[in-house]
Amino acid sequence: MATDVDGRRYRTWYAMLLRLYPRPFHARFGEGMEQTFQDLCRERLDAKRGLFGFALWIVFETLMGIMRENTIHMTQLNKTIPRAALVALGLLMAPLVASQFVEDWHWGVGGFVFAYLMFFGTALAYGLIARTMGEWAYKAGLALVTGFVMGWTNMVHISESENPANFIYFGVLWVGGVGAWIARLEARGMAKSMFTMAMALALVSPVGVMLFPDVRSEPGQNLMLVRGVFVTLFAASGLLFRHASLAGSK
To answer: CA-to-CA distance for 197 and 147, rounded, in angstroms?
Structure first.
């Protein structure tokens, strides 16, 4: 006969099984499914009925659901990637055409490849965030546009000045990318990632001096002002994501 210990064990295993669902699905339905399973187990225990066969059948049904939802999730991702690739290709036409008419445009093949990767990464990130955040996806626009503009201007600056210290700015974008991956593109974690990017960008100057002591930094109020604007925009984006997380929790 099943005991309370068996019931707790099955509930623990079932809760672990539910984590195999895609994260958005689990966040939305996981708690309710777990509670339903617990109630059904409790009913069978009170009726002094066995749990093993029941738990085995529920696990089988759940595994089928997990396979179905993950298939749907991957299908949606496979649609997002080619769409992002096409959007990036369309946007790349602007610098390609401009390079034919601007005399001082000296990008090589590597520059255009890098530009395409930036377009593609931005479009893909927005597509993935849109699938995760739904109606709040527009709040990601500020972060993505800010990151793109900072990466683009830094790429142009590096091509003109060949100052290796400027690569640190790409490190700030890398921090944001890793933070977004850890947060699984959820609003609360994205807010923390944006605040971390703002802090990292504010520390660019002292870090640059430590890593590149032989390279003359570029002082000036204009540079400090531009950096301050980017710090403010990343912090503002963090506040927007935080607002989205609070709204989503209500």
So the answer is: 10
Is the distance from CB of 163 to CB of 217 less than 8 angstroms? no
> What are the helix (H) ranges across the chain?
4-18, 23-46, 52-98, 109-133, 140-161, 168-183, 187-202, 204-211, 221-249
Query: What is the C-alpha separation between 45 and 61, in angstroms, rounded?
Result: 21
Residue 239 in contact with residue 188, Cβ under 8 Å? no
Domain residue limits, the chain: 1-105, 107-250
Backbone region of residue 184 per phi and psi (left: phi > 0; alpha: psi in -120 to 50; beta: other values) = left
Residues 148-187: tens digit of each pLDDT: 888 777 776 666 555 555 667 778 888 888 887 777 767 7
How far apart are alpha carbons 25 and 19 in whole angstroms? Answer: 9
pLDDT tens digit string along 80-98? 888 888 888 888 888 888 7
Closest by alpha carbon to 173, among 209, 225, 242, 125? 125
Radius of gyration of the chain (CA): 25
- 207, 168 contact by CB (below 8 A): yes
CB–CB of 12/37 below 8 Å?
no
Is residue 71 within 8 A of residue 33, CB to CB? The reply is no
For the full predicted model, state whether its pTM sits above 0.70: no
Residue type, 175: V
Convert the pLDDT of each residue in 115-148 to its tens digit.
888 888 888 877 777 766 655 555 667 777 888 8
CA distance 242 to 236: 10
The half-sphere exposure of 121 on its side-chain side, counting CA atoms within 13 A, is 19
Maximum pairwise Cα distance, the chain:
85
